[in-house]
Design brief:
Layout lengths: L2 E2 L6 E2 L40 H13 L4 H11 L2 H10 L2 E3 L3 H21 L8 E5 L6 E4 L3 E5 H6 L2 H16 L2 H28 L5 H42 L3 H14 L7 H6 L5 H12 L1
Parallel strand pairs: 4-6
Antiparallel strand pairs: 1-2, 3-4, 5-6
Helix pairs in contact: 1-7, 2-7, 4-6, 6-8, 6-9, 7-8, 8-11, 9-11
């Protein structure tokens, strides 16, 4: 059966996910009953996947801690997971859709190729993921929310097509593992935690000579929570680094390991990094790039 773009009416191949003429996403037609694959369970809950338990625990800890504000906490979570919030975040972050004809002609086929390969390896990928550009000349890519995959303009300008495929495959790995949803849970928790700590610090500073009451507040709340937050932050950053390795592994599994390795080597060749302190290493969200290259090359070669 012929397939046509719903926006401009251009004829499309059956496997097309995006229109090569206008860039519009093409709805996936439901398979016929005789062609239906075996039923696969698709997680419905945010971050319900192995490897993100620390993020869920962090979220639940502050949910319990702020139980008096339970409705507000839940409503904030729902807003954070909404399409409106994701769209607003793109706008305030300077992230735009593909607009130029050259961008669409080059990037949409690359994205469609990698997305199709990734779908064969994971039933957890969202059915709709859209590609965006951030006006930033550094080499980077990132995934956000439920459907936003971003390439920086620097990546588009400085990397070849194979390297871009590698970056896209890595970011699709974050979607497949629900890492982006886990980060949203952490963001909600951190928002409430930061607000509470700010108010508590102001209270202590205003009543610095408050004697026993202020000492009691510090002993029962302020210092214990600072310790808990410090330990929690170290655990979450460790999990974040592990998630980067997992996303690299997903790119390998999808058939784009060499392409990702090439992108990382290119990034390393032009990046100028100052030595990190021990504290900075523990709080880093990503492993050092040479560690990621090393892990990839162990498998590739």
């Amino acid at each position: 059966m012929a397939k046509f773009c719903p926006d401009c009416g251009a004829s499309l191949p059956d496997i097309a996910k995006f229109c090569a003429s206008c860039g519009a996403p093409v709805p996936i037609a439901p398979a016929q009953p005789s062609q239906m694959p075996q039923a696969k369970s698709r997680p419905n809950n945010p971050a319900r996947t192995s490897g993100n338990g620390a993020y869920v625990a962090w979220y639940l800890f502050y949910l319990f801690f702020f139980i008096a504000f339970f409705p507000i906490y839940i409503i904030t979570t729902m807003i954070a997971f909404s399409n409106v919030a994701e769209k607003l975040w793109r706008r305030v972050s300077g992230i735009r859709p593909l607009r130029l004809k050259s961008e669409k002609e080059r990037l949409l086929p690359l994205f469609a190729e990698v997305y199709a390969a990734a779908l064969e390896k994971s039933e957890n990928l969202p059915e709709t993921i859209n590609l965006y550009i951030k006006e930033d000349m550094s080499i980077n890519a990132f995934a956000f929310g439920k459907s936003t995959l971003v390439l920086t303009r620097g990546s588009v300008e400085l990397l070849n097509d194979d390297c871009l495929k590698g970056l896209i495959a890595h970011e699709l790995g974050h979607f497949a593992h629900h890492d982006t949803e886990a980060v949203l849970l952490m963001t909600v928790s951190n928002f409430f935690m930061s607000f509470f700590f700010g108010k508590l610090t102001d209270f202590i500073n205003r009543h610095e000579n408050g004697g026993f009451l202020i000492t009691l507040v510090k002993v029962l709340f302020y210092y214990p929570l600072k310790v808990i937050n410090f330990i929690g932050e170290l655990i979450l950053m460790h999990k974040s680094r592990q998630n980067e390795y997992r996303a690299d592994g997903f790119a390998l599994k999808s058939g784009f390991g060499k392409e990702l390795n090439g992108a990382l080597i290119k990034l390393y060749s032009i990046a100028i990094e100052k030595p990190q302190s021990v504290k900075e290493q523990f709080k880093a969200t990503h492993p050092h790039i040479t560690l990621r290259i090393e892990q990839l090359e162990k498998v590739i070669y």
